[in-house]
Design goal:
Blueprint (H helix, E strand, L loop, with lengths): L10 H13 L3 H7 L4 H9 L6 H11 L4 H7 L4 H7 L4 H7 L4 E3 L15 E12 L18 E6 L9 E7 L12 E5 L12 E6 L3 E10 L2 E5 L8 E2 L6 E10 L4
Length: about 260
């Protein structure tokens, strides 16, 4: 028997199928581009399981303007998110639209386009990285959190946009460099310890979650060092910490 109207696939499933066919790719190949399995793509196209937010953002990246707004909308992003963070670009966007922007999602691992990118739209995640003495969110939420808004930055500020997202800082042990409530921009592709000595990073530990600190090496020992020396330093490996990524830059509101 044929399908009835009530058993029709949801619109998002039909759009994913149409996009894959328009790209001329298989479910397996599309899954690889989205860091997912062919089985997951099959479930999405059949409408039995809806994709997570990070996949919807990547689908929007693949399809381009104007259909990208449908997929980004399913991820919780809206066109006025861009208009709010890019007020000076409104006229320009009407003419050039989105080919000059890249929308990134933590954990998406999308290979950036070779086209010249003037601005990168970075998702601000509702995720907290604590300073020394505090407790941050678990590292796993970086791959699960839905963006709450967007920030726009020059492309050269974000060398690896597919691995870049924004987190919020909680605590005061990194003052005066990082204040409580600052937004930090995290690049999770940069985890080589030897290249991170002296830089501010985000590390993760099972009990303390995400922690922001400065990585230093003293007499062969790697240590997480706070800016405020009233707080204790933490040995990296013996405390069970692993490096999540490098902080590229940060922003905060003036007092």
């Amino acid at each position: 028997m044929g399908k009835t109207r009530n058993s029709a696939k949801p619109e998002w499933a039909a759009r994913i199928t149409a996009l894959r066919r328009r790209l001329g790719t298989s479910q397996s190949d599309l899954g690889k581009r989205l860091n997912a399995s062919a089985m997951a793509v099959s479930r999405w196209e059949r409408g039995t399981q809806e994709p997570p937010a990070n996949v919807y953002i990547q689908l929007g990246n693949l399809t381009g303007d104007p259909e990208c707004w449908y997929f980004w909308g399913r991820a919780g992003l809206r066109s006025d998110d861009f208009m709010r963070v890019l007020p000076a670009m409104r006229t320009r966007l009407r003419n050039e639209r989105l080919p000059n922007l890249q929308v990134v999602q933590a954990g998406g691992h999308r290979i950036p386009s070779r086209k010249k990118t003037q601005l990168v739209a970075i998702p601000v995640l509702p995720v907290v990285a604590a300073t020394h003495g505090g407790k941050g969110d678990p590292a796993a939420v970086l791959d699960q959190a839905r963006p709450e808004t967007m920030l726009a930055a020059p492309g050269h500020w974000c060398p690896n946009p597919a691995y870049t997202s924004c987190l919020r800082v909680r605590g005061r042990s990194m003052m005066p460099v990082l204040h409580d409530g600052y937004i930090v921009v995290l690049d999770t592709s940069q985890t080589n310890r030897q290249k991170l000595y002296g830089h501010i990073i985000v590390a993760s530990q099972k009990e303390q979650g995400l922690v922001v600190s400065r990585l230093q090496r003293f007499d062969g020992t790697e240590v997480l060092v706070p800016e405020n020396r009233e707080y204790d330093s933490l040995p990296l490996s013996t405390s069970g910490f692993r490096i999540v990524g490098k902080i590229l830059w940060w922003i905060g509101r003036a007092n």
